[in-house]
Amino acid sequence: MFGTPPATNVSSFLVVAIQANIFGGPCDPWPECDVTKPVVITNGFTDFWENLVHETLDFGKPVILFHGDSHYYQVFENPDNRAPNLIAVQNPGSASIGWVAVEVDPSSEDVFSFSHVDVTPTERRMQSLKEDESEDSMAYEL
Predict the structure, then answer these.
(1) How many domains does one find in the chain?
(2) Does residue 5 have a cis peptide bond before it, meaning omega lies within 30 degrees of 0?
(3) Quick check: is 1 in a domain?
(4) Does residue 123 lie in a domain region?
(5) CA torsion, points 3, 6, 9, 10, in degrees to nearest 10?
(6) How far apart are CA 95 and CA 117, in angstroms?
(7) Which residue has the higher pLDDT, 26 or 132?
(8) Which of 103, 97, 140 is nearest to 121 (CA)?
(9) Residue 141: pLDDT band by 50, 70, 90 thresholds?
(10) Which domain covers residue 129, as residue numbers?
(11) Which distant-in-sequence residues (6+ apart) come within 8 Å of 136 by Cβ?
(12) How far apart are CA 58 and CA 44, in angstroms?
């Protein structure tokens, strides 16, 4: 998956970006998600995830997975307790206007820090929250 064998790789870290929420729904609705609990993937991304974990362990250096298709910004460190050098960053979805800022400090123990810069107008944010509440209640009524 990563291409270059780890023994010859001179990269300090690796970034993988995909357009999907590979974690499915265990962390929706936000903010009830506990990012300290292991994530279990039970959807079509199982093979991708297993390969990513394996390659991440072989790489031996930090790997950041940016993924989307959900409405909430969250950072999962070592998401399933098997690859301590893996960080998954769930990017905010359509309800949010903004970006994820990444700071890299090689002298720091954590090396990476992330923050969500939200510039969503208040009116839009409130409307989006109402829509989310409505969708959540409909899902539970089924």
Answers:
(1) 1
(2) no
(3) no
(4) yes
(5) 140
(6) 13
(7) 132
(8) 97
(9) very low
(10) 6-141
(11) 29
(12) 23
Whether 64 contacts 16, CB under 8 Å: yes
Cα–Cα distance, 16 to 1 (Å, whole number)? 10
Cα–Cα nearest to 95, from 35, 29, 50, 14: 29
Angle, CA 120 vertex, CA 114 and CA 121 arms, to 5°: 150
- Pick from 60, 53, 62: which is nearest to 80 by CA? 53
Of the chain, the percentage scoring pLDDT greater than 90 comes to 20
Q: Considering the domain boundaries, does residue 85 fall inside one?
A: yes
Q: Is residue 135 domain-resident?
A: yes
101/117 Cα distance (integer angstroms): 7
Element (H, E) at 128: helix 122-141
* Residue 9: partners with Cβ closer than 8 Å, 6 or more residues away: 2, 59, 61
Residues 35-78 have pLDDT tens digits of 666 666 767 788 888 999 999 999 999 999 998 766 678 888 88
Measured CA distances, 64 to 76, 128, 130, 134 (Å): 10, 28, 32, 33
- Distance between CA atoms of 36 and 134, rounded to whole angstroms? 28
| Six token digits for residue 18 | 């995909």
**Paired tokens of 135:** 């969708």
